[in-house]
Amino acid sequence: MIVRLGYVAMAIDLKNCSPSKTITFSRFETIEDKEVQLYKLKKLTEENLNNTRRILLYNKAHDIQVYRITSKLVPLVTHQGVLEWDYTKEFNDMYKSISSIIKENNMRISAHPDHFTIISSPRDDVLKTALQDLVYHNNIMDSISLDEEIGKLVLHVGGKYDSKEKTKYRFIDNFASLPKKIRKRIILENDDKIYDIHDVLDICEELKIPMVLDIHHHWCNNRDDDIKDYIDRIFNTWNYETLIPVIHISSPRSEKNIRAHADDVDFEFFNEFIRKARKFDRDFDIMIEAKNKNLALFNLMAKIKNHPDYKVIDNASFEI
Hints:
Elements: E1 2-8, H1 25-29, H2 34-61, E2 66-68, H3 92-104, E3 108-111, H4 124-143, E4 152-155, H5 164-176, H6 180-185, E5 186-189, H7 197-207, E6 211-214, H8 215-220, H9 231-236, E7 246-249, H10 267-278, E8 284-288, H11 293-305, E9 311-314, E10 317-319
Parallel strand pairs: 1-2, 1-8, 2-3, 3-4, 4-5, 5-6, 6-7, 7-8
Antiparallel strand pairs: 1-10, 9-10
Helix pairs in contact: 2-3, 5-7
């Protein structure tokens, strides 16, 4: 069983390398000249894309093949009242450069649209906003030449609204109304408060879309069941996909703040899951969602290297 580790958005030891530089809408509104407004948006986007390229080169140097790009590459892109402009054609060469690094190094790239991107809502305006955000993410994936088979978007089911069961059915109905290309990109994750493994598996198996298992979320939101009883079913939702399964891992920050992410991944928390997954002997990827980002990955790998059950492959992957 081979496992690759990845992280989210920011390589925090790279200086001046945020891929999420932005401007507040209130500040944007104070710029009266439309040309200056557009210049500001373009400049920030250019910096974000350049920093994303720097991070990918950093990942290459450290054998990291699993990475989640920020959803904030283009500032205010879906905000009402902001100038519309072609953020893909404008930086075509930069997107191509990013794509080359990804393809040449067999990197797995995903994105996680923000919490307001909810397709289970009973409100038409919320659905409209969600679709706009999904179109934006799809455009970014297209620009870096990641088709719907490999450029995936992670979503949650959403709020409870009238009831969990009604919302699950509404998610299924609204999902069917999305453009086919976007439907093919969506993978669904269990959350830490409402929709647990059972709920998300119901939806994924009905829609035949992949499920992302979040171990920390399951720890917070479960039915007193053992996660090992569901690993095989969850991984099987990936059977007809190009990509292997991916899971998310983070550790609770404290006993009082169990839903918040700790700086690093607790090794015993991690190792307990690996022992359970090992019996299925299936390769998968892990997205680390710890506060220390890439450093949390390195800290976890340092502990893996010192454990006799693990065979280290490189700086970010192992066999067990």
